[in-house]
Structure formats: C-alpha cells, structure tokens
Amino acid sequence: MEFDDEARYEEGSWYGQTKVKRILRAMWACGMVLTHHRRHGRHYYDRPERVIPARYYQQPLLRDETAYHRWIVARRVQAAGLLRPTAEAAVWCACGSSQQRKEAIAQLVADGTLTSVQIGEKGWLYYMLTSALPLLGAPMPEPRVIFLGPLDSFLWDRKAVAQIFNFEYMWEVYKPASQRRWGYYVLSVFYRDRFIARLDSHLDGRTWTISRWWWEPGVMPNDELRAALDAAIQKFLYYLRADDVVCG
C-alpha cells in the first residue's frame, strides 16, 4: 500500500471496505500511519512524518528502558494533572510494572520533575508536575461551564475524582441498558471548582438533544451559572457542528 505526496486515505474509501479498514487499522497499530483527522466518525490517515511535528518526529529513539519509564510516567502525570501512584492499572498502562513506576517516580521527585501532594484530611498521596506548582497560588480563571466526555483525562482516575470532588462517575456504555443508572454516554458538567451536574444526550442530524439532566446535590442555579451554561452550550454546538439544542 503506497501513499502519494498529496492524498490522505480514509476508512472504507477503496475496494472492500472491511478489508481496507482492517489493513489501515493494523498499520495504525504498528505506527506505519497515524490519524490525521476525523470527520463524522471516520478516520483519515497519513504518514507519521506528516502528522507528528518535525521537532518530535526527528528526535532520536529512546532506547534506555529506565529513561523511558521516567518519561512516560511524567507524561501520564502531566495528562492527569494530579495522579495517585495507586491509580487503576488502565491509568498506568504502558508505564511498566508497579516497581518500575515506583522507581521512576522516586527519580522524578529527586530531580525535581514531580512533587508529592497530600489531598484532604486523610492526606491521600498524589503527584503533580513541579512546574505546575505556581498554578496553586494563581487567581481563579473566569468561571465557565465545561462538559467532560467519559474518556477525558480529568476523569481517568474515578477514585481520585470521588476523593477530591465527592463525585461518583462510571462510564456505562458497555453496560446493558437495564443495568445503567444514568445512561449510555453521560457527560459530566464542571463549573468553578466542582462537578455540578451530568447529562445524557445524543445528536440527531444537526440537533443536539439533551434527553436527561441531573443536578448534583446542593447546586442552586443562579444568573451567573445560567449565563455560563448558555455559553458552554453554544460552544458545544459549534464543536458538534449542530445548529440547535432541544430537551427531549
């Protein structure tokens, strides 16, 4: 399979949709092609050197295993913001064994890359990038509402979310409908410094339909929150390429 200098290739665009899709996905898994972008759920692939910025693509290969574990652990902490050393195995995927992670974390703390943080009255142990410490004393940003998808890095560690924000969340997409408490693809709603709600919705053509909405206990919507919510909805409509939102 050859890639010319201009074209990008999409799933199912050639003969035998299933066969081509499997070939492209196999090439993607091996790093031979990367996802350049997606449109309406369809992946468009391109050569790695045309997707990855040159300053990263041309980096020398990292062959030192210990150095790799330090790099991947630091990147995982950066992605999560705060991360427990005892987070679920899926969160630490590709970061080595528990002993290798423990050694990497110790080295990253020793060289000043990571800082240990104790959260709450029980002093739960977390790690964060030392470079992010100034953010702890920075002024709060302008209040805004954020809709968080189930796979957002903010929600990777469900137990941490429960510890810090007292917010229980579970992605129920793989549960039978009869066993779901909330819904198929529920979004969490974050405002200021807490989770305020969750919603179940779907896209019908160019209409975003919110089928159910649950406020968190103690949340009392005021004019400021309503304005922030309206702004978030407009941004989300743009993201969805939708024209309207309705409550179904």
Write up what this structure looks like:
This protein is of the alpha+beta class. The chain has three domains: 9-57, no CATH class; 65-137, Arc Repressor Mutant, subunit A (Orthogonal Bundle), CATH 1.10.10.10; 145-247, Aminopeptidase (3-Layer(aba) Sandwich). 29% of the residues lie in helices and 23% in strands. It has six helices and ten strands; from the N terminus they run βαββαααβββαβββαβ. The chain has helices spanning 17-29, 54-57, 65-80, 98-110, 158-165, 223-240; strands spanning 9-10, 34-39, 42-46, 114-119, 124-129, 145-148, 187-191, 194-204, 207-215, 244-247. A five-stranded mixed sheet has the order 6-7-8-9-10, covered by helices on one side. Strand 8 and strand 9 form a beta hairpin. Helix 3 packs across helix 4 (98-110). The longest helix is centred in the last third of the chain and has 18 residues, at 223-240. The model has no long low-confidence stretch (mean pLDDT 90).
